[in-house]
Amino acid sequence: MRPPPISADHLRRAVAAPPLERPTLLAAAEAVSCRVSDWLAIAEAWLELDRPDDAARCLVAAEPLLGPGWDMRRAANAWLRIGDADRAVGVVEAVEARAAAETCGLTWRLLAAAFDALQDPDGVARCLATGRARARDADDLCEMAEGHVELLGDTTTARALLEDGLSRSADVRSCLTIADARAAWRDGRHRRTPATDACLAAARRLAATFQDWHEIAAQMHELGHDPEEIRVALLHAQEFATRDERLSLARRMRDWVQDPEAAAALGPMGLRPAQLAAPGPSPLGWQRDAGALFDWLRERVTDAALEVVASGDYQTDEQQHLAALREIRDTGLVPLPLAWHPLEVVSLYQWSEGEDVDHAARAFGCTVICLPELVHAGQGRGGLEDTFAVLLESCCVLGEDAESRAMGLLVAFADGPQHVEPVVVAFATLGLLLVAARRDSADPRLDTVAARLLALEAELTRDGYRRERRGFVLGATYFDQRVDVWSRLVREVLLPLDVAVDMPSLAEVVHRFAAKP
Predict the structure, then answer these.
(1) What is the Cα–Cα distance from 427 to 452, expressed in whole angstroms?
(2) How far from each other are the two terminal CA atoms of the chain, in whole angstroms?
(3) Which residue from 152, 221, 238, 505 could staple onto 451, CB 3.0 to 4.6 Å apart?
């Protein structure tokens, strides 16, 4: 079952089509557009055809969805291409007005940069002043410092902001955030300086946990410190390390200190899925098997596919990402926690969609994201609600073999490991219900899963839904960038069910999904 064509598919066809056929394809793209990026891409395509009125229609549709990021800049640039400079400025001013109560420093730096691109110095000064006044923590102060350097060349104010932030830093993370900001000032590259040394010294004085020392070692590695200095930090981390955390240290000893013997003494480079969640029967009626899908995909994801995934961050660190992906595929070992290489690119590739997606590669990346989260030492990323949706969609495309194996991974989460948040357990349970119902809509075990889902939903909604308008279960999370995938699967799989009278819980779940929020 392949998902229906999306706006990007129609756009891709329009680009390749003769000019006379493009308007029809762009109109088809508009008909299924639901995201701001879709509207902006369609507007840009209309401009390529020299049809500004059509482009303006799409830009107007996009405006309520704009936030203080690149999409806002794209919209303003499109209005400039149309020849309406006032509307371009108005786009940024509208986003600024919607952000009136915002405290996040990144928001105000992005707004200032947008005004700078529109040659509006008053807007730049206003947004930087607002960001300075509202800065709450090291992250905000670093964003404001970067804005002053990048937009005004004002290193004096930037340095004062960071020195103030360091003096107020009460935890290691804040010190390292400021060190990272100071390191990036020279030619945009991270380099060790006396200022970064001062930040690291403050961090060392505050360090009191495994995570503290691990992050200090990571910052030293990023800044090019001597391997022996990094070793000292890792040895401090080892004093606090659990068994699973020692696995992370082993990898760091190998990769950062180039000491394979010390790495081997700490333990293996990762764990197999069966070590993350023991295989076996589940109260839900299916077998718990976290590794079945992982191993099946390992045999099918090609070097060429991994190269595409590894290049997904604009080719940044492509070879490091590729080496990490190959190691995971070839060894079957799951790193704990999943490091930046390859977390960044698999996280990006999970957002790929449309007819050209390599679903084996996307499912492999989603599985690599999910598996570490089964144990406490692998947690920290968040957003598995979206990842489960993408994984399910790809497995449905890959067919019955992938679906049946995905159930084992979903059961591992649906069984509710103690450290996993209830909302993640609920979405894993929903995923299990959808896959199981696709395979056999009369399976009596569906009622057991549905009963579990109702109980979880009741727990999640004691204090109200986070996204009330999303409705049953789907409104229980802020991670809802793929709620459209969940909604489509529910419509296609659950809503058409003719539920037997001996499945009251399943009937209630279908009723709750069918009801409008």
Answers:
(1) 11
(2) 28
(3) 505
